[in-house]
């Protein structure tokens, strides 16, 4: 059975809270050889891939209904909307730090969970898919935390600021374009998170 998208989100969130090097006092390079940890990483990779597919499905819906399909055609409008990309620079920097990367993934999942409310308002006919994405983001964080506890890793909750308020769209067109960019940014975020998990799985 497919893993619910929410579970993936929960897993990612938990990863953020976990100080990876605390597990049995082992550095990450030793932890990477742990079979349970490897299984955890591979399950999360599948989860992330599933969520990416759901985001792509919503992007196709926005393209079909509103003819909003190409990002480069909408960049000027984007400047007026205040839609920003959630940072994940710790996940692709040359000085990759797993703990910092997972902290950013965790924070980002929380932010996108909130931002998807704008997409939900725009696409009431596809509410079940949007709500599944939101649930998946929440569940992924939870599952990751549980996995870290199962491995004997003390969980650390990093102080984070809650996601900011949703942008106020001045027109229905701006709402459409804003939702387009929320989905586009979320897809990029998930691609970076996926690469980070794959990197750890290959250590």
TrEMBL record:
One GO molecular-function entry: cytokine activity
Pfam families, sorted: GCSF (PF16647)
Compartments reported by the entry: Secreted
One GO location term (cellular component): extracellular region
Main subcellular location: secreted
Signal peptide limits: 1-25
Family recorded in the similarity comment: Belongs to the IL-6 superfamily.
GO biological process, one term: positive regulation of myeloid cell differentiation
Domain of life: Eukaryota
Keywords, in A-Z order: Disulfide bond, Glycoprotein, Growth factor, Secreted, Signal
PROSITE patterns: INTERLEUKIN_6
Protein name: Myelomonocytic growth factor
Classification via SMART domains: IL6
């Amino acid at each position: 059975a497919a893993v619910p998208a929410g579970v993936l989100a929960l897993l990612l969130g938990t990863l953020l809270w976990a100080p990876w090097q605390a597990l049995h006092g082992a550095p990450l390079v030793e932890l990477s050889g742990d079979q349970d940890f490897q299984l955890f990483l591979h399950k999360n990779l599948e989860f992330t891939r599933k969520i990416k597919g759901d985001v792509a499905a919503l992007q196709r819906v926005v393209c079909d209904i509103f003819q909003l399909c190409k990002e480069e055609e909408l960049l000027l409008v984007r400047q007026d909307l205040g839609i920003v990309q959630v940072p994940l620079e710790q996940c692709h920097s040359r000085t990759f730090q797993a703990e910092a990367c997972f902290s950013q993934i965790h924070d980002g999942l929380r932010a996108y969970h909130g931002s998807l409310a704008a997409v939900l308002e725009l696409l009431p006919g596809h509410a079940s898919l949007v709500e599944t994405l939101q649930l998946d983001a929440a569940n992924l964080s939870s599952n990751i935390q549980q996995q870290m506890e199962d491995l004997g890793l003390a969980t650390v909750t990093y102080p984070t600021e809650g996601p900011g308020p949703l942008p106020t769209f001045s027109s229905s067109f701006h709402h459409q374009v804003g939702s387009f960019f929320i989905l586009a940014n979320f897809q990029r975020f998930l691609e970076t998170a996926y690469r980070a998990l794959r990197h750890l799985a290959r250590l």
